[in-house]
Design goal:
The complex is a heterodimer of chains A (426) and B (93).
Chain A lengths: L18 E6 L5 E2 L14 E5 L6 H5 L30 E4 L1 H7 L5 E5 L9 H14 L4 E5 L3 H12 L3 E7 L4 H8 L4 E5 L3 H11 L8 E3 L5 H6 L2 H10 L7 E5 L4 H15 L9 E7 L4 H8 L24 H11 L3 E4 L1 H15 L5 H16 L8 E5 L7 H4 L13 H11 L1
Parallel strand pairs in A: 5-13, 6-7, 6-9, 7-8, 10-11, 10-13, 11-12
Antiparallel strand pairs in A: 1-2, 1-3, 4-5
Helix pairs in contact in A: 2-12, 3-4, 4-5, 8-9, 9-11, 10-11, 12-13
Chain B lengths: L2 E4 L13 E4 L6 H11 L3 H5 L10 E5 L2 E2 L15 E6 L5
Parallel strand pairs in B: 1-5
Antiparallel strand pairs in B: 1-2, 3-4, 3-5
The chains are: A alpha/beta (426), B alpha+beta (93).
């Protein structure tokens, strides 16, 4: 278990950069860097530990316009940016004055728009780090359990890296996400059941000889993979001019993204890259899959699994691995967690699109609608600066919105017909 | 009666590397299965259960296709021919 696997690629630097070990978040047991993800003592999650050297703003600013500008803070070698990869990250931080006005927010509101990544979701970030780890660990096939966005990202990254990939998805996934995965030439396997069933299957596949050289990015490579989400926190801070926002609203699926944005903020503080200013982290879930929100409202530390039933399939994880840690972060920072209905999710998608020209997938609709709900409930301060995360592109989930929008009318190709139509709309 | 238990990689040091173990519990519940498993794989019980005898926070246990948290936990019935699977919970997302 604790024996490190030798890296398959010779580099002139440490294969995992400043990462020094894996450590159990529950009991603190330490392990060598390897393709391990659960503690042999207590089954707790393993997390990458580091021995950071000096990292300056100038070093980061001189790096590429991608997540690799933060290589020194990730479990990757300094050569990671030079290997075939999708070079995700450094997406736009959009000032959203129109949305703020619509929601009654008087503080500055920003949208961190991660739909601008190569496969149009934040998952490109985590996959890039996992892909680097897979190379170091000699794992030649990239694999994952996915609700869709990760499937896109793994299939595309493997194609760029000339690696084999096997992607497992629930068979009821949105057609758009099936097509946008299969197009990359991956081996796409649709599994009868929901995401949690697929996840379970991947857990059982690990250890079977058929997967000896497989890196499941969100299972046996999860410690490395999850670190990629820190870059969202880093970018927000850097793009705000090297400072932290007062409030952040983040969608919760497994809870890993929320916890890693917080970790990114804390690392920037510890490294002296930003001032230690207070921030509050808020979580967003769909009512049809809100195990973390339910635990938050009930005051529980343990997240009871649920069976998902929501249009926000990218957030439809009924048994969220990082749920307890997301609860810890939200409570520690004085935030809260909201949940919204499918109807509100569609309203959220439309509101963001109509006010800011940003078309979000259902997860983004969850986050916008939750922001609105938290303002109304008084849990989120409308006078403070707030950053909203949009984690994916609306083109992936057209089915959610298509019943609700369409042409104002169908007319003959004549000026008078246009005039008549517009007159009718007035 | 016989119940098959699928063991995750990190616990196979207790099962001589075997991925699946068949046990014949005296009591037809998950608790009975784990007791029988401890007999053939000494030490494995303490990895799956905490000091209070409850399932550890980051262990998922399935009886046939169902997460026992949706069933009766350690009291979930495990009749003859049942398949039990133990999996680390920390995955996905």
């Amino acid at each position: 278990m604790s024996t490190a696997i030798l890296p398959s690629v010779t580099t002139t630097t440490s294969p995992f950069g400043s990462a020094s070990h894996l450590q159990c978040r529950e009991c603190g047991a330490r392990y060598s860097l390897g393709a391990e993800y659960a503690c042999i003592e207590c089954f707790g999650p393993l997390e990458v530990g580091y021995e950071f050297g000096t990292v300056t703003r100038e070093q980061i600013e001189s790096g590429p316009l991608s997540i690799w500008r933060y290589s020194a803070l990730l479990p990757v070698s300094t050569t990671a940016a030079l290997e075939p990869n999708l070079a995700p990250g450094f997406t736009k931080l959009v000032r959203a004055d129109n949305l703020a006005q619509a929601l009654g927010i008087t503080g500055v509101l920003w949208v961190k728009d991660d739909s601008g990544n190569p496969t149009h979701s934040f998952k490109d970030r985590v996959v890039a780090v996992a892909q680097s780890a897979a190379r170091r660990l000699g794992l030649s096939t990239l694999s994952c359990a996915s609700t869709g966005n990760l499937a896109n990202a793994v299939a595309a990254a493997a194609a760029r890296g000339a690696q084999r990939s096997v992607v497992l998805i629930p068979s009821n996934l949105e057609p758009g996400k099936v097509v946008t995965t299969a197009a990359y030439g991956t081996t796409l396997i649709a599994v009868e059941g929901n995401y949690d069933d697929v996840n379970r299957l991947c857990g059982e596949l690990i250890g079977d000889s058929v997967t000896d050289d497989w890196g499941f990015v969100n299972v046996n490579l999860r410690p490395y993979y999850a670190e990629g989400s820190k870059t969202l926190g880093y970018e927000i801070a850097e793009q705000l001019g090297w400072r932290l926002p007062q409030q952040v609203v983040i969608p919760i699926a497994s809870g890993a993204l929320l916890t890693k944005v917080d970790k990114g903020f804390r690392e920037f503080i510890d490294l002296g890259l930003v001032k230690k200013t207070p921030y509050r982290i808020f979580g967003a879930q769909a009512v049809g899959c809100s195990p973390v929100e339910q635990a938050f409202r009930a005051g529980h530390d343990v997240v009871r699994p649920v069976r998902p039933d929501t249009i926000a399939k990218s957030l439809a994880i009924g048994n969220p691995a990082d749920g307890p840690y997301a609860l810890d972060v939200v409570r520690r920072t004085g935030g809260s967690i909201g949940a919204v209905t499918d109807e509100e999710i569609v309203e959220g998608i439309r509101l963001l699109a109509e006010t800011e020209g940003i078309f979000a997938e259902t997860a983004g609709g969850v986050t916008v609608a939750t922001l609105r709900a938290l303002v109304r409930s008084g849990e989120l301060d409308p006078t403070a600066e707030t950053v909203l995360l949009n984690t994916g592109d609306g083109l992936k989930t057209l089915d959610a919105v298509s019943p609700h929008v369409g042409p104002a009318g169908t007319i003959s190709p004549s000026v008078s017909a246009v005039v008549n139509l517009l007159g009718g709309l007035a | 009666m016989s119940v098959t238990v699928r063991v995750p990689t990190i616990l196979r040091t207790y099962t001589d590397g075997q991925a699946e173990v068949s046990v014949a519990p005296d009591v037809e519940t998950l608790s009975g299965v784990l007791t029988a498993l401890e007999v053939v794989a000494p030490g494995i019980g303490a990895r799956v259960l905490d000091d209070e005898g409850k399932l550890r926070r980051f262990v998922n246990v399935y009886v046939d296709d169902d997460d026992v948290r949706f069933l009766d936990g350690l009291d979930t019935p495990t009749p003859d021919g049942t398949s039990v699977s133990v999996i680390p919970a920390v995955a996905g997302g």
